């Protein structure tokens, strides 16, 4: 995700429902990092509601370079675009929204459809909540057993998130650290180990 240091997405998968003029609208929303994950979520919802009149969807992937929406048989511009506009307005990425409709026999008109699909998407995003994910470095340290206790205690004081600890020939710890804290972390670990503990950057990941 080159050039992007943070992004917003929904916090969890959520389902909300409402009825408008006898039509039932069921909105399912989920964080989906990639286009493949979004498509899998859409198929999952279609399988849950195989007899629905429409399964309208919109998604934007985490990198932001793939997005799509579908009216799924509703009049053009009255369904998929309003759902997509909710994602755009909230500046979300890595999210997929599917609004399922069971037609109740009363026509809503173009304006009514736009309002209904917008409401479904908005209600679902609000219910799911929004989380900001920030790009962080993934670092690894490897220390001998004699100094591991002191260094791991120092690590607990620092602004890092421990991902795993491994005990083999040496004690290894893998953790994440934000760019603004990287210098402080390196310095503190060097001081705690007389310069012997040098964190190795092994990757990047987005985390809340």
Write structural notes for this entry.
It is built from 5 helices and 10 strands, in the order βββαββαβαβαββαβ. A hairpin with a 3-residue loop joins β8 (160-167) and β9. 35% of the residues are buried. The strands form 2 sheets. Strands 1, 7, 8, 9 and 10 form a 5-stranded antiparallel beta sheet that branches. A 5-stranded antiparallel beta sheet has the order 2-3-6-4-5, with helices on both faces. The mean pLDDT is 94. It has 2 domains: 6-128, Impact, N-terminal domain (Ribosomal Protein S5, domain 2, 2-Layer Sandwich), CATH 3.30.230; 132-207, Alpha-Beta Plaits, CATH 3.30.70.240. It is an alpha+beta fold and 208 residues long.
Total count of domains: 2
CATH fold description of the largest domain? Ribosomal Protein S5, domain 2
Kindly report how far apart the N and C termini lie: 16 Å
The CATH homologous superfamily name of the largest domain equals Impact, N-terminal domain
- Whole-angstrom Rg: 23 Å
> Which architecture name of the largest domain does CATH use?
2-Layer Sandwich
What is the H/E string? EEEHEEHEHEHEEHE
**What is the count of β-strands?**
10
Q: Look at the structure and give the CATH class of the largest domain.
A: Alpha Beta
Residue fraction in strands:
35-45%
Helix and strand content put the structural class at: alpha+beta
Report the average pLDDT across residues: 94
Characterize the quaternary organization of these chains: single chain
Which spans have pLDDT < 50 for at least 5 consecutive residues? none
């Amino acid at each position: 995700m080159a050039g992007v240091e943070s992004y917003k997405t929904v916090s969890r998968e959520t389902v909300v429902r409402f009825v408008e003029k006898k039509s039932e609208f069921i909105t399912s929303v989920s964080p989906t990092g990639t286009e493949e994950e979004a498509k899998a979520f859409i198929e999952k919802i279609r399988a849950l509601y195989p007899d629905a009149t429409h399964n309208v969807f919109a998604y934007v992937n985490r990198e932001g370079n793939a997005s799509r929406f579908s009216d799924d048989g509703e009049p053009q511009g009255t369904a998929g675009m309003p759902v997509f506009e909710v994602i755009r307005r909230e500046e979300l990425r890595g999210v997929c929204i599917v609004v399922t409709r069971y037609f109740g026999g009363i026509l809503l008109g173009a304006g009514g459809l736009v309002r209904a699909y917008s409401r479904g998407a908005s209600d679902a995003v609000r219910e799911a909540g929004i989380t900001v994910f920030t790009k962080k470095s993934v670092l690894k340290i490897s220390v001998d057993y004699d100094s591991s206790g002191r260094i791991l205690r120092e690590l607990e004081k620092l602004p890092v998130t421990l991902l795993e600890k491994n005990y083999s020939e040496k004690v290894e710890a893998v953790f994440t650290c934000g760019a603004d804290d990287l210098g402080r972390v390196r310095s503190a670990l060097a001081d705690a180990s007389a310069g012997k503990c040098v964190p190795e950057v092994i990757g990047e990941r987005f985390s809340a």
